[in-house]
Design brief:
- The structure is a single chain.
- The protein is mainly alpha-helical.
- Among the domains are: about 50 residues, no CATH class; about 80 residues, Four Helix Bundle (Hemerythrin (Met), subunit A).
- It contains eight helices and no strands.
Length: about 180
């Protein structure tokens, strides 16, 4: 996703450059120019407003509610994880990985095609947009599979175990869960 955003941003900047060159020269006035506005992230990189507000407040709704396998493995004795729960979590992880890994390869292959299409001196707009749609759809599928795995893992844990995990990671916003943090 980061590669796609960067590629689309670069493509947008390249498309704007000829327009900037054709702009008429500015006439100088006596008043000093206004200070430049602070840089803003590109629109594609911005999260929806509600998500940005929550992150600024130190909250990540997914991180607060879900438990990555690494966190559970690190505290399995502390939360009293049973053998049946451990086996069920391993089964879900294996099932998820069997779907996630091939999909990751497919995303990479399609992203490479998109990058190649954007590298051409003249970009075939329809073909490139179709490739971008395909990459975006595959990335959505990846996130959905990942979220499904985290939901299934949470549903294996008891309410008491979930509460203990919340306390161990500092309630809300304490520390970084590697699996949930990179959404």
């Amino acid at each position: 996703m980061k590669t796609l955003t960067l590629i689309l941003l670069c493509a947008g900047l390249v498309g704007i450059a000829p327009l900037a060159e054709a702009a008429p020269p500015r006439v100088a006035f006596a008043a000093p120019p206004a200070p430049p506005a602070p840089p803003q992230p590109p629109m594609a990189a911005q999260a929806p407003r509600a998500m940005r507000v929550q992150r600024r407040a130190g909250r990540d709704p997914l991180r607060d509610k879900l438990f990555p396998p690494e966190l559970i493995m690190g505290h399995q004795e502390d939360i009293g994880l049973t053998d049946a729960q451990r086996k069920a979590i391993i089964k879900e992880i294996e099932a998820g990985q069997s779907k996630l890994v091939p999909l990751q390869w497919q995303v990479r292959a399609e992203a490479d095609k998109l990058e190649a299409a954007l590298s051409a001196p003249r970009v075939d707009e329809q073909r490139t947009l179709a490739l971008a749609d395909k990459v975006s759809g595959l990335e959505r599928d990846l996130k959905r599979l990942h979220l499904t795995l985290l939901i299934r893992i949470k549903n294996i844990l008891s309410a008491d175990q979930q509460q203990k995990l919340q306390q161990m990671r500092g309630g809300r916003g304490g520390g970084r869960d590697p699996v949930v943090a990179d959404w």
